[in-house]
Amino acid sequence: MKMTAILLGVAIAAAVATGPVNAQPALPVFEVASVRPNQSGSQNSSSGRVAGNRYTATNVSLVSLLRVAYSIQEFQIDGQPRWADLDRFDVVATIPDGGRSEDWPLMVQALLRDRFKLRFHREQRQASVFALTVAKNGHKLTPADPSKCRNPTGSCGFNGSPTQIDGTSVSTAQLAARLSRSIGVMVIDKTGLDSLFDITLQWTVEDQFTGRGASASPTIFAAIQEQLGLRLESTKGPVDVLVVDSAEKPAPD
Question: What is the pTM of this model?
């Protein structure tokens, strides 16, 4: 009996010292944030922009906010209520004094937790994916020109449209992530290339995919091979999925 009490005391002391096993670090939060319904009916939206200490997102859905907050694609989100894709919101928020502007995705995560009452869990599922590889005759990628980038030691990132992708000082891993968004299927970098490149990829409206996965037009795949010297090969692989357990429409400001 005495030994049992001693062991119980040791266990309690250890629990107090270490804290909860599943404890998560506190997220940085916006100093103040406004979330209002957008009923313009416009098709134009901006999923997130930071200027100074101000973050704005215009005419966005909950799914769009999830995508930018957690750096995932829409096909990696599951379980959301129907309104999460349809209802649109305007978000205006202020980064607090001393806060880091680059932490805005974490602040959006906190906003989703507090204002949308978001609760979720993560799963890894086997799914159809594409492997980005170097074509038989070698790649046609242009080595990055540091003078084009305001931050020569890192990636400048992407600009694009529904029919074009422009990347300045980007890696093939970043290209794979950007292609995932355009094609609607996970693309995994298997090129083995570790340099940075300046990339331009163009295709026409007629080349647009008509759905996801196998229904995508092959012409965009031909453009990747002809213009970049790369290939997309269909395969199976693990895909991380954010599963929404519950979410609520935010109360009006």
Answer: 0.72
